[in-house]
Amino acid sequence: MEGLGLPTRIQILFNTFLKHPETRSHLLLIGPPGSGKTTSAKFLVEAIHGKNAGSSLFGRALFLNSSDERGLEAVRSRVYPFVRSSFQALFPVSDAPKIIVFDEAETLTDQAQIALRPLLDELPKSILIIFLCNSISRIHASIVHKFMVIPFEAPKFHDFKHRMGMITKSEEATSISGLDVEFRRGDIRFFILNPKKYNECTKLWQDVLTCHNSQLNSLFTTTLQKWTYPDLAMFCIYCCKTLGLLTAPSLIEILHITDTDFVKMISIKQRSYLLSKWFQTFVKEKLETWPPPS
């Protein structure tokens, strides 16, 4: 498990589950994207059942993406048939429990979550359920206490570089800037999937703080061809906060121009104009000197 670059406390906990099966519990892994939840769940499944645990007719693991299969029907048609299927009598392989992993579990409907309660009421000797989620607030109150909750945190910059190096085995991965790591909340998965965006935020930071005000709208228009509008808005807030300029009026204004219903009614060009105007008003004009002395 050391080669996965996960925090020491997670390694110790999961190794304990493997050495002492009686300590196992249904698990709720919670944390931001890219913090290691999916990697940890896959490690546990493979450590218990092998790498092909979910790929055959006799599979002992079921992986579900709850954002795609989020309703009661998915629980009825996928989960319970998997639970009831048993080839153990004919082909004895292991006393280890079947494992069901729900990725993005917070997107499961309340009905679907409640339908899982009979399985959660049982000790995880025959069925082990693992929820992976970004926020615990949307896990139904009637079942959340059935899980052992394990928090995963966005890695600090030093830990991030260490884990990226271990996972990718690439020196280039260590060149990611601290600004990019902080803005992306240490999302290791994002950087693994987007190796060309290692220093994208750093470049945008430099561009917005060195371009003339008249160029800002054009810069944002170009950026919105690659970034989503909410991401660019969050970057503007990040810049404002990092520079110590974030105020109640600036927050109120950006909440207004990023309101979902409002955004649907305006074009990309208008979105770019509004964000550039916000940035000019609440960031550039608030700096003591502009442009900064060279």
UniProtKB/TrEMBL annotation:
Gene3D superfamilies assigned: P-loop containing nucleotide triphosphate hydrolases
Keywords: ATP-binding, DNA replication, Nucleotide-binding
GO CC, any one term: DNA replication factor C complex
Pfam families hit by this protein: AAA
Single annotated GO MF: ATP binding
BP term (GO), one: DNA-templated DNA replication
Keyword presence, Nucleotide-binding: yes
Domain named AAA+ ATPase: residues: 23-156
PANTHER family, sorted: REPLICATION FACTOR C / DNA POLYMERASE III GAMMA-TAU SUBUNIT, REPLICATION FACTOR C SUBUNIT 4
UniProt protein name: AAA+ ATPase domain-containing protein
